[in-house]
Amino acid sequence: MNKKELVEAMAGAADISKSAAEKALNGMLVSITEALSEGDKVTLVGFGTFSTANRAARQAKNPQTGKPMEIPAKTVAKFKPGSKLSEAVK
Fold first, then answer.
1. Which own/partner pairs from 70-76 qualify as long-range (CB within 8 Å, at least 24 positions apart)?
2. pLDDT tens digits along 36-88
3. Kind and range of the H or E run holding 6
4. Which pLDDT does position 62 carry in this prediction?
5. CA 10 → CA 20, 21, 36, 56, distances in Å?
6. What integer pLDDT is reported at residue 90 of this predicted model?
7. Which pTM was predicted?
8. Residues with Cβ < 8 Å from 84, sequence gap 6 or more?
């Protein structure tokens, strides 16, 4: 499912216009992004939790040359599905 299909599904499920559904989806995505960039967690009960994790710098090998290379530390986004979502996709 892509974003357009998700907007259409949201509009149908909530009985609202596609433009209103798109505004709601965009607002939710912006809010989640802002919260994660500030280091907060976003928990949607029954659906899941969005959070961040720090990855340490590490050594790896370049697959083409075999030479060692340094992969820098970074912060990554994580998602842990909630119980209802996990049950629904079994």
1. 76/52
2. 999 999 999 999 999 999 999 999 999 999 999 999 999 999 999 999 999 99
3. helix 3-14
4. 93
5. 9, 6, 24, 38
6. 85
7. 0.81
8. 46, 47
Sheet-wide strand order for 74-81: 42-44, 48-55, 74-81
Rounded distance between C-alpha atoms, residue 45 and residue 15, angstroms: 23
Q: Which residue has the tokens 């505004």?
A: 23
Q: Amino acid identity, residue 84? A: K
Give the pair of three-digit tokens for residue 89: 């996709």
Using CA atoms, how far residue 16 sits from 19, 29, 89, in Å, is 8, 19, 27
The first and second tokens of residue 84, run together, are 């209802």
How many residues does the structure list for the chain? 90
How confident is the model over 18-50, as pLDDT tens digits?
Answer: 999 999 999 999 999 999 999 999 999 999 999
